[in-house]
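Format notes (please read before filing issues)

Several people have asked whether sequences and structure tokens are stored in separate files. They are not. Every record keeps both together, in the order shown below: the sequence lines, then the token lines. Line labels are part of the format and must not be stripped during preprocessing.
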Amino acid sequence: MNRTYRRALVLTVMTMMVLIALSAAPISRAQNNAVSIVQLIANPEKYDGKVVQVTGFLRLEFEGNAIYLHEDDYRHGITKNGLMVVRNLKVDEKADKFDLHYVVLEGTFDAGNHGNMGLNSGTITNITFAALCPTRKPDHRS
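Then the structure lines:
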């Protein structure tokens, strides 16, 4: 292999790696703390005061900021399947994009705070990461 061809190949591979990295969905620095909302509801004492990463349907509204297990839980008022969300800059900077969408949040779980009028099953505070949940494309193999 001549030198020019090798350089071009290395440059192409490096460019492709950078493009792939930039197009990837943002993720938290610590994925080992990913838990489901079900785990937090079922075992709140296990996660109380710990940093957790959850995925769910986010609703941002006056006295009703919460992340739900499913969109249907929000739509049907099943508030115990949700966790209150204490908003901060990580959420507020993209609130219009996050509201009424599935998101990934990372923050501290507070098992003792059940939100406005005790409606929820805990609270996510001190949010350090927030992003829209990546979606899958439909599988068209039929």
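For reference, the curators noted about this record: The two ends are 45 Å apart (CA to CA). The mean pLDDT is 86.
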